[in-house]
Each structure stands twice: as C-alpha cells, then as structure tokens.
Amino acid sequence: MLSQETRDIVKSTAPVLAEHGTTITKVFYQNLFNAHPELLNIFNHANQAQGRQQAALANAIYAAAVHIDNLENILPSVVQIANKHVSLGIKPEHYPIVGEFLLKAIKEVLGDAATAEILTAWEEAYGVIAEAFIGVEANMYKEAREQENGWNFFKPFTVVLKKQESDIITSFYLKPADGSNVPEFKPGQYISLRVLIPGEEYTMIRQYSLSQATRPDEFRISVKREADNDPNGVVSVFLHKQIHEGDTVEVSAPAGEFLLDVTQTTPLAFISAGVGITPMMSMLETVATRTPDRPTVFLHAARNEALAAFRDDVEKHAANMNNAKYKMFYSSEANGIITREVLETYVDTTGDAYVCGPVSFMEAMIRELRTLGMTEGQIHYEFFGPAMQLDNK
C-alpha cells in the first residue's frame, strides 16, 4: 500500500512525464539492451526502431502517475499488456531489471529535477505496479497451463498447410509437433510465433490473430507479407518465403482481450481493413456456427480485389446465417470507402461493433460510430503491436 505522500509525489510528476516521457523511455530501452542484450530475444526490434514501444511505455507510465490514487482505473490496460507479456514469455525476474533501468533513465533525463524523494516515490510505485502485473500474469500462466492441452511459453508446431488467400496474405495451418491437440480459444485471440531467422543474432516474436474458429487439433494464422525493405516485415517475409509445409515454428498459447461475447444475441457489426480482417474471420465463423440467427454485418475495406482475402469464406459463412449482410469495399473503385453513410446504412447502433485495421482507419471508424450514437462500451477494437493513443474525437 502506497503512502499518501508517495502518491502525491508521483502525481506531481505527471506533467514532467507528459513532456519527457518518450525521451525517458528511449534512454531506458537503450541502456536496458546495452546491459541485457539477451532481452532482445523477447522485444520486437521493429517497434523499437519505429518508436512505437517507447511511446506505448511512456503512455503507460503517465497513466500510472495520473491514476496512482486509483490504480484500478488502469486495470483494463494492465490486463491487455499482461496478455502480451504472457504471449512473449515475460517472467517475474524481468521486473526488477526493468525497474532498475527505468529509474536510472528518469534520473539521466531529468537530472537534478529527479530528486532522491521523487526517485524513492517512483521506486515504491513501480514495485506496487510490478506486483500487480506479476500477479495478473501468474493467473494467466496458470490458466494457460492447466487448461486442457495447455502449456506455458513456447511449444513446437508443424506447418501442415500453407495457403495463399490474396496477393499479400497467406494462411499457415499449425498443429502441435508432438501430435497433441490444442486448447479451445476464444474468437478474437492471438498466438505468438517465435522464429530464429538465419543470419539474425536474436530470436524474433510476433503476434498473429487466429483467423478461424476454434478447432480441436490446429491453429490458423493469416499473415500479410510486408515489403522486403520494411523493418516491420522481417518475420512476415521470412514466413512467406522460407517457411514451408513440414517446417516447425514455436508457438505460445492463445491470449488476448479482443473477444467476441458468444453469450449475446444482440446485433453485430464487424468492420475491418487490410489484414485487420483476420480476427474477424474467427468471430464471423463462430457466429455462423453457434448463433446463426444473430443479426450480423460484415464490412471490409481493401485497396483492390486482388489484395482482399477471404471473400469466398465470408460469403460461405453469411450463407449459413439467417440475418447476415456483407460488403467488400475497394478503394481503387468509385464508392470504395466505408463512410459514415455506409455505417448508418448497415450498422445497428443498438448492438456491438468490432473494429480492426490500420490506426487511421480505426480512428475514422470509431469516430463515426460514436457520431452515430454508439457508446464506448459498444465499440471494441484491436491494435496490431503496442497500444497507441487513438485520435477518435
């Protein structure tokens, strides 16, 4: 339990963190990896290079400072981040290392302004926050381990089928290399793949949404191939070009909080763009097989028909439902954008909307859905990568 004095000191640093947070986290990561290069086996190098991880951590630290009196206010963020941590294999022993280098970075960036009093208060606050994460993650690890066919950390899987879905998206069907089954997963969850790419010093981990409804013996992920020279594309290019049927990859247990509530029968709208369609496929198939009477709309945007994946699958699932509408939008064609008018025509605002795609697309869709009267609790969305601040006002 933090003293009132400690909470007051931490809260007083919020304006400074708002101004210098990203600088602090850049210094933190640089010093952390210099001292502990083995942690590069866990962290996404591309997110580091682009500054997304630094910005996400800065936002998290600032939120902790603002809400230090009521840390339960940031519990949804804690759970979301904890899911990512579990899918990466973060362990309790990593937290003291992070705390040490975070405090050193605060001191290095703020200099004399980071008094002993401030550093002590943040050390105490970090201890409480780290303890919360460790506790949440311990429960997640326990649940993942003890569920039927469950495990912790990474397990070898064999690529049993590799199927091209569009000019840039390929599906990989994965089965446990030991011949066992897989745990049941919730529609919208993701798994992590860990690979060691020839010529690279460290392993790389990426999260991919499960793109079909749960099966007893396999996972399916559907991966967009990024450009060869895109830092974000190192793993996707490797999977597309060098991973073949019969090859083995390491896989984590399913995780994630972007979930379809399968107990409801209220209207649904799935709104996606690009590879953001992948979690929607798991959700749509689940609705089609479990609650086919549920009113459902599926709207998807792509640059053109050649880049749009799963059109035939969407048609098949919709045909098995009693109240489903779907439409594909191609920006290369006239009227090829999902506008407010489109949403007004298709979306029943008494239900729930699930949004996934590029950040700018999500911002636009969420903003328009709110304009149409949908509340924050009705709109669900998923980031690919570290959580960012959405501008949807």
Automatic annotation (TrEMBL):
Q: Which residues bind heme b?
A: H85
Required co-factor(s) are: FAD; heme b
Does the keyword RNA-binding feature in the UniProt annotation? Answer: no
Indicate the annotated site residue(s) for Influences the redox potential of the prosthetic heme and FAD groups: K84, E382
Which residues does the UniProt record annotate as the domain FAD-binding FR-type? 152-261
* CDD domains for the chain: flavohem_like_fad_nad_binding (cd06184), Yhb1-globin-like (cd14777)
What reaction does this catalyse?
Answer: 2 nitric oxide + NADH + 2 O2 = 2 nitrate + NAD(+) + H(+); 2 nitric oxide + NADPH + 2 O2 = 2 nitrate + NADP(+) + H(+)
Q: Which Gene3D superfamilies match?
A: Globins, Nucleotide-binding domain of ferredoxin-NADP reductase (FNR) module, Translation factors
Q: Where is the Globin domain?
A: 1-138
Instruction: Please state the Enzyme Commission number of this protein.
Output: 1.14.12.17
Q: According to its record, what is known about the domains?
A: Consists of two distinct domains; an N-terminal heme-containing oxygen-binding domain and a C-terminal reductase domain with binding sites for FAD and NAD(P)H.
Instruction: Provide the protein name.
Output: Flavohemoprotein
